[in-house]
Design brief:
Layout lengths: L1 H32 L1 H9 L4 E3 L34 E3 L2 H49 L9 H24 L13 H26 L6 H28 L6 E7 L5 E6 L4 H15 L9 H12 L13 H14 L1 H44 L10 H22 L8 H13 L4 H9 L9 H4 L5 E4 L12 E5 L4 E8 L28
Antiparallel strand pairs: 1-2, 3-4, 3-7, 5-6, 6-7
Helix pairs in contact: 3-5, 3-6, 4-6, 5-6, 10-11, 10-13, 11-12
Subcellular location: Cell membrane
Membrane topology: Multi-pass membrane protein
InterPro entries: VANGL
Length: 525
């Protein structure tokens, strides 16, 4: 082995030396041939951003997964990897700075609403306490003594405030899931209602109690208790408007992905358009299969190949316009339509055959690998505890035996951009830890799963755009259509109202279930 390493190092040193000498000879020849090109290249400047390698298992370039690959591509293919460099212009830098400013504005908007709600909530909880404490601080000597009933009201105020605090925390102080374009109408109305309610109580308290210095302390405490009771009723109203009103299904929405036509149906209650859009996006990430643009390139390449085979000759001279050529190409494509379906049929049949073949190889390779790790576990149990393998080491030990089959299968099905080597190792170690079967391990790769199943950096869209002819704060209605757009595709949402169902009842007498057997003489009975 050392001799092989010495030979390899000598070969690499020789290659480096020969390459360096050739490069120096070429530079000297270019210097004698065109000295101006060197000065010109030295004066040019460019800004580059080096992107780190993405540690793919199979290379994320979808163009490498062409259908023309044979089954033995691994033996005759040389892969060259490295760090790529991309130039960036001044306009790109300006756009990046604008995106940063927009994100900062969204953060400020989010925290501003949370701050206003927190200040108003603090004012609400401190108001009953202030109503009780201010007379004790300002004119304590003139107050009437507080009896048993008054002291019992203290306990009532304390427990009601505690219940109100817990309910407010559970209903309002939640982690926001999204930034909506417009304000939530019901929540804003509740905040305005609470502010007006507390302000009116403070106004009455200042005019009738503070100015006159009322000495009836029990009446003051009862006034504070009435405020807390009213706040509890407002909290109940908030539960009805924000939570219970939307539970009853009233509409059925059909969500269609614009690129491949995949669709789902959902039932929604009384919601605004922007909140319905949030519900649709939440269900999209868990119900729709991951968007794979590589699957759409086959039809485009086939159409481009058919159009490339057409040749148009202009016999009228260069003065003729291009519309005649386009009509001629469309007519020729229509004439070739009868033969194109045969090509499509054989292409799909060949693709299915290759997928089944590589799937069978993958299943066999994974089953053999899991059998190997089970044997290793049985052997390691008899050794010392310090020599036991953890799941990560076991996954790294059996992964090379299945990597080739998994690589070919993912490239054939064009899923290689969603599965990195690190994610596959993590999933394999997870399956080994929980004693899962080979079939459970392969479930993620044999069938395209929902979007949430894959790495967040590979599918998550940071921004969606809601396009609607109606105001996004208005409620759902029958026939409304709105669109959710992201960078690569869009979701078209069509709203239909659930029809009114009229159900009638019909009574059947149990005694009417009687039958007679009719026999004929010609029968054998």
């Amino acid at each position: 082995m050392s001799a092989a390493m010495d030979t390899e190092s000598t070969y690499s040193g020789y290659s480096h030396y020969s390459g360096h000498s050739k490069k120096a000879h070429r530079q000297g020849r270019d210097r004698h041939k065109s000295p101006r090109s060197k000065d010109g290249s030295r004066s040019e400047k460019s800004v580059t951003i080096q992107t780190p390698p993405a540690e793919p298992l199979l290379g994320n370039d979808a163009s490498r997964a062409e259908e023309g690959q044979d089954d033995n591509w691994g033996e005759t293919t040389t892969a060259i990897t490295g760090t790529s460099e991309h130039s960036i212009s001044q306009e790109d830098i300006a756009r990046i700075s604008k995106d940063l400013e927009d994100s900062v504005g969204l953060e400020c908007k989010r925290y501003l609403g949370l701050t206003v709600a927190a200040v108003l909530g603090l004012l609400v909880f401190l108001t009953p306490i202030a109503f009780i404490l201010l007379p004790q601080i300002l004119w304590r000597d003139d107050l009437e003594p507080c009896g048993t009933v008054c002291e019992g009201l203290f306990i009532s105020v304390a427990f009601k405030l505690l219940i109100l605090l817990i309910g407010t925390w559970a209903l309002f102080f939640r982690q926001p899931k999204a930034d909506i374009p417009r304000v939530f109408v019901f929540r804003a109305l509740l905040l305005v209602l609470i502010f007006l309610f507390v302000f009116s109580y403070w106004l009455f308290y200042g005019v009738r109690i503070l100015d006159s210095k009322d000495t009836n302390y029990q009446g003051i405490v009862q006034y504070a208790v009435s405020l807390v009771d009213a706040l509890l009723f407002i909290h109940y109203l908030a539960i009805v408007l924000l939570e219970l009103r939307q539970l009853q299904p009233m509409f059925t929405v059909k969500v269609v992905r614009s690129t491949d036509g995949e669709s789902r149906y959902y039932s929604l209650g009384h919601l605004s358009i922007q909140r319905a859009a949030l519900v649709v996006l939440e269900n999209y990430y868990k119900d729709f299969t991951v968007y794979n643009p590589a699957l759409l390139t086959a039809s485009k390449s086939r159409a481009a190949k058919h159009m490339a085979g057409l040749k148009v000759y202009n016999v009228d001279g260069p003065g003729n316009n291009a519309s005649g050529q386009s009509r001629a190409m469309i007519a020729a494509a229509a004439r070739r339509r009868d033969s194109s379906h045969n090509e499509l049929y054989y292409e799909e049949a060949d693709h299915e055959r290759r997928v089944k073949k590589r799937r069978a190889r993958l299943v066999v390779a994974v089953e053999e690998a899991f059998t190997h790790i089970k044997r290793l576990q049985a052997e390691e149990q008899q050794k010392a505890p310090g020599e036991m393998m953890d799941p990560r080491e076991a996954a790294q030990a059996i992964f090379p035996s299945m990597a080739r089959a998994l690589q070919k299968y993912l490239r054939t099905t064009r899923q290689q951009q969603y599965h990195s080597m690190e994610s596959i190792l993590q999933h394999l170690s997870f399956c080994i830890t929980n004693n899962m079967t080979p079939k459970a391990f392969l479930e993620r790769y044999l069938n395209p799963g929902p979007t949430l199943q894959y790495d967040r950096d590979r599918w998550f869209s940071k921004q969606w755009t809601l396009v609607s002819e109606e105001a996004v704060t208005s409620g759902l209605q029958d026939g409304i259509v709105f669109v959710l757009k992201c960078l690569d595709f869009s979701l078209v949402v069509n709203v239909k109202k659930i029809p009114f169902i009229k159900l009638s009842e019909e009574f059947i007498d149990p005694k009417s279930h009687k039958f007679v057997l009719r026999l004929q003489s010609e029968t054998s009975v």
